[in-house]
Amino acid sequence: MHDFKYKNSELYVEGVPVRKITEKTGTPLYIYSYNTLVKHYRAFDKAFDGYPHITCFALKANSNLAILKLLAQQGCGADVVSGGELFFALKAGIPAKKIVYAGVGKTEEEIAYALKSRILMFNVESSDELAVIDRVAGKLKVKAPVALRVNPDIKASTHPYISTGLKKHKFGIPIREALEYYSLASKLRNVRVIGIHKHIGSQITNVSPFVEAVKKVLSLAKGLRSAGLEIKHLDIGGGLGIPYNNEEGLPQPEDLAKAIIPLVKQYDFTLITEPGRSITGNAGILVTKVLYLKQQLKKNFVIVDAGMNDLIRPSLYDAYHHIQPVKKSSRAVMSADIVGPICESGDFFARDRKIIRPLHGDLLAIMSAGAYGFSMSSNYNGRKKAAEVLVKGEDFFVIRERETYKDLVARTRIPGFLK
Ligand code: LLP
Asked: pTM of whole model > 0.85?
């Protein structure tokens, strides 16, 4: 479900041809569709209608302020994992009461910032962290609202780097020991226990791990409630997978909701979800220009102007991203590695990929790049971070300017003895 379509062999985002945008902005360029973003958010949020819920977009997937503002206008909350993400969420107008804060390594400074901002709750990952939250809240004379992130020991069948719900992972507290942790938390003077949190991984393409995990967490929640704890918020995390290669039959937010709501129906929780990828993933593309074609020992390379610093997913997870021409042609199909300019063999977007033979200067669209694309980008190899554009109907707006060389050195300082 997205708004990147061909009209007369030309790729459009909503009503605007991609080429027209790149003529103004250059490449590499991230382009997002307003309409797709809104549709994805609404589909997710609506799926849980009928049960009290808050949809907290996981900012790590994409934290461009314009996109966050768009989501905030739709009523979205935020799942943040750092002071920086909290700052973005608040700046975009997401109400503090719709912000949850996870992460295994929150600093005291970040905890204080979140307490002062009066966020909905901390998703706490260890007893050490509980103690620090208690201390910082005490200093600020407030009560810190917390949920404990439990690790339900469920296999999420996804890439090992983005699976989080197994015993061996650093995340959360073991579900078997959860009662002790909750009992500890309930004794802390400056902490108010209000919920329970779990997240088992990302790009999960089947609802059954979600169901299994929620069942485990529910039986814990029941135990906690009968022990007198106020478990109001049930946060089931994010992780719903999306198609990267036109895969059919993947579960939709509706399917997730249909599987989860019957399990929680009899309890009066506020259900929190933390979707990231399923909102922005297929709402964005990375457009890149072909710089060179190179043939070596019968292997073809298409060298493009985007690199692993712009989109690291293929290099890091061997992730598949569909790559298509911005202008379709009838040239022959070839098999090639599509690679960037960075000095690493791991700098590729596709290997042995069948594509229509491109010419120098052709534009390629790397699809499904709206989540964990720009947000994971870097300046490696002295590269300027890409620009970002939002398309709405017939109009487009630069929502992040391309960095300049000056930006690259803006915060470095030369000590006096070198001047
Ligand atoms: N909540 C928590 C606690 C998380 O750790 C994550 C993702 C999410 C929500 C959002 O998950 P989503 O709905 O986007 O699957 N960089 C990797 C993905 C890392 C995900 C980390 N946590 C990638 O590019 O595939």
From this structure: yes
